[in-house]
């Protein structure tokens, strides 16, 4: 065989000689598990045919075939069917192979129509002609598909996938342009065009991604996958349009995405950039009060939010009494908040999923970012480990806040202290084009002492490992292994020592999940997989601090449980206007031994006096099982490119819950598992929304309404003792709830004046009814829950005066939180007692606050060591004394009412940030 290009073009020229038509040669051929080259060699040994090609054109795919008395054409048509190879047979039994293009016989006999220049691509095509052939330069030219005789009058599909070359992750919301056509990649990084055969230029442009331009020749339907590198550019002004109409196009309702870089100008308390605090300015997300830990989403309790950091669970995402977020803003990339129908892969919480993604470190150069403020400092460093293949990003943050407590005019706080720190690191490595790995580690620690005798501390730790594998252009997979731990300690040390103790609590969760994304076709995109979680909970132990302590040791028995799930979802595109997402999640929960469980007399109220039996369970023996099928359905209909309606339905199950008789989350809240006495919580929610973009997508308007019902929600008896209680179920009440509301959002995305206005009207009610008076609240009727705040308004504005100077402003208003007031008093046996109103009948005063900030960018010279940013802000500029809570104390025979507040005066802050 001849394998040189010279001979290839020489014999192409010979095919132009006119010869007489011959009777086709027929022969028999059998081959098994043979490469194309081996099949061609076998044909040459059995026939007079000789083949001319470049050996690199043939791969090592194995073929099997059996032919009896067949022509060469019938054999080659099957052999090259799934390739881009064409062939041409000369009158001298020479067979010339070509890639993509056809070789035509000249029309000198009048028997065939000679192809015109419009019949085939105008460039990069090898066409047989008289005289020597000169190949077109094919450097950086991509040939797609295989030309056929009927190609000229058809339109073909060009599809592919765009990925990050460093992390191997798909790049979504990227604009791909061919001529006047623009498409946006979906969440799989996929794109598609419908084109006629010809020569085209494909372009991609995005902020943070290297721009690319590719020349391609389209012969037939085919695939072009694109790998792009990350880039860093300093620009005068950035306008991002890739996802400007995402709110109209996507099918999921009630999804909010926040980018860490977009919130740096928003004035917040003590100058700390806080992505979760910004989330509470959006409709449907509320805090229980200023400085409160956690937040409520659409009437749900704080423990009903699943907070994920690189797919690992964070149980307490706050620092410093809830004033600061536990997530480092400098290492955070994006935050996605699902308030409605979350994807089927997520489960275990009723109200929301907060999916936080850490930035990927630079694999090209060493970079950093830092800030210095009055209370905290922050530094983040990123560097390549193996250039263009792996990188690491490390962030650390700490506080020096004790000076604030010492400067307060309150002698009771003289011995108080409060501090925190957190560290996070993420390593990414691209093994090859199909495999990449990610590893994230996170640790946070808080300690505080408000009195002179008790030191409290709590910590979060997290490890997340992910392996991503691309099977092919249609199928991707992610394997996740994560471990999360939350614990708190109370070190009580009072002079005298008789009552000194140590109290400890810990929760450990290990999560394994396999998720597969499969693109069946343009209409169906499937996600499916399996997950399992192992919970280990130490509900608490109390031990003497030293030999002088007279405290009796107490150890509540440990809890274990396994929660597993199968999930499946289908993004179904009926047409360009109508999209449907249907998801199913079947969860199975098992409470496991070792341990004992109390059995109570159902004819009596649950109390230590109604225990009828104590059952003992061996290690890993199943105590109680629960299961449920969750349905998650969303639909979107786009009436126009700028207006759409969406609806969703979602039901969920929650098998772990926090126990707290406070009005908000606290560091000493304990998480307990469902068992034979505490049932899992359930919730069903329906949502309907309208979405409109105006002014070439400059303005975004949305209105969403929702209705949610809940079962087995928790509340507690008056005076409940929740710490170190071996019969905690005797303090717990379970009932039903309902919540409904309307959320309005007006957002201006770009321009000198930008920001958003959010307003929510909502109601949240609870009902605890029973056959026993001891287990009723408010006579078994519905009453406003602790987080019922009908009116919630937020206004966030940023005005850019120049390229370096801008003003920012926040304004927040909320209806006062419900509270139970004493409405009378009476004397009994010489003592005075208080008579209280119905539960949550009254409200504390309404809350409102305004913050302002001045933002000063450093000069925009590209060539300098660091780029700086100053933020000067005043929190609560109006000096509003917003009450956090109202409580009553009986002293000297009188009932006195008090209210507490966190920040009752304006709080000025100056923070310096710089990047290098």
TrEMBL record:
InterPro entries: Beta-barrel_TonB, Beta-barrel_TonB_sf, CarboxyPept-like_regulatory, Plug_dom, Plug_dom_sf, TonB-dep_rcpt-like. It is a multi-pass membrane protein. It is found in: Cell outer membrane. The keyword Transmembrane applies. Residues 248-349 form the TonB-dependent receptor plug domain. Its main location: membrane. GO terms for biological process: siderophore transmembrane transport. The lineage of its organism: Bacteria, Pseudomonadati, Bacteroidota, Flavobacteriia, Flavobacteriales. GO terms for molecular function: siderophore uptake transmembrane transporter activity. It comes from Polaribacter pacificus. Gene3D superfamilies: 3.55.50.30, Carboxypeptidase-like, regulatory domain, TonB-dependent receptor, beta-barrel domain, TonB-dependent receptor, plug domain. This is TonB-dependent receptor. SUPFAM superfamilies: Carboxypeptidase regulatory domain-like, Porins. The keyword Transferase does not apply. GO terms for cellular component: cell outer membrane. Belongs to the TonB-dependent receptor family. Residues 425-876 form the TonB-dependent receptor-like beta-barrel domain. Keywords: Cell outer membrane, Membrane, Receptor, Signal, TonB box, Transmembrane, Transmembrane beta strand, Transport.
